[in-house]
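Try this one yourself first.
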């Protein structure tokens, strides 16, 4: 836990320093808020599904994202994803049951080149058997359309002490 807190403090320090060095660039006061509906599949390696051992389980996922763009390159946001499946993972010589896990998190995003963003932040995977702490990293590319609409493919990786997972998603966004 101390390592994760240290990592978060380093990230916050980096973001603060980078934001303060943006030469006073003005942010666009219009359309700083963005809401997205996200659909995808989460890959869980070495899981059990319906009592059978699999090398991997793919679980459908649906989610809602919110972000606030506070500078030209930086944004902060929240994610809420629901895994629409049940599976077991082997953790510490016991079966860890996961039933329709709800993943929540706070993220910090940086647009490192036109339309490409990297996001990182802590979260909690809520599930009736056991809640898990996660650290999510994401990479996404957004195609912007008229009237502040967009579509973006993304890849997420959730670091967990118990097991890790990754997902491929497609999101539809609206800026306002």
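Now uncover the answer:
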């Amino acid at each position: 836990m101390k390592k994760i807190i240290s990592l978060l403090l380093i990230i916050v320090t980096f973001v603060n320093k980078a934001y303060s060095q943006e030469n006073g660039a003005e942010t666009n006061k219009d359309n700083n808020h963005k809401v997205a509906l996200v659909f995808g599949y989460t890959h869980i390696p070495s899981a059990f599904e319906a009592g059978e051992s699999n090398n991997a389980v793919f679980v459908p996922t649906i989610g809602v994202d919110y972000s606030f763009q506070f500078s030209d390159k930086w944004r902060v946001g929240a994610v809420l994803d629901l895994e629409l499946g049940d599976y077991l993972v082997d953790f510490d010589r016991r079966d860890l049951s996961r039933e329709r896990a709800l993943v929540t998190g706070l993220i910090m995003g940086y647009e490192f080149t036109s339309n490409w963003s990297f996001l990182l932040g802590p979260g909690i995977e809520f599930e009736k058997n056991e809640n898990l702490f996660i650290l999510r990293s994401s990479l996404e590319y957004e195609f912007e359309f008229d009237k502040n609409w967009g579509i973006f493919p993304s890849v997420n990786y959730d670091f967990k002490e118990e097991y890790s997972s990754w997902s491929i998603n497609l999101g539809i966004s609206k800026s306002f």
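Discussion: The first helix runs from residue 2 to 20. The mean pLDDT is 85.
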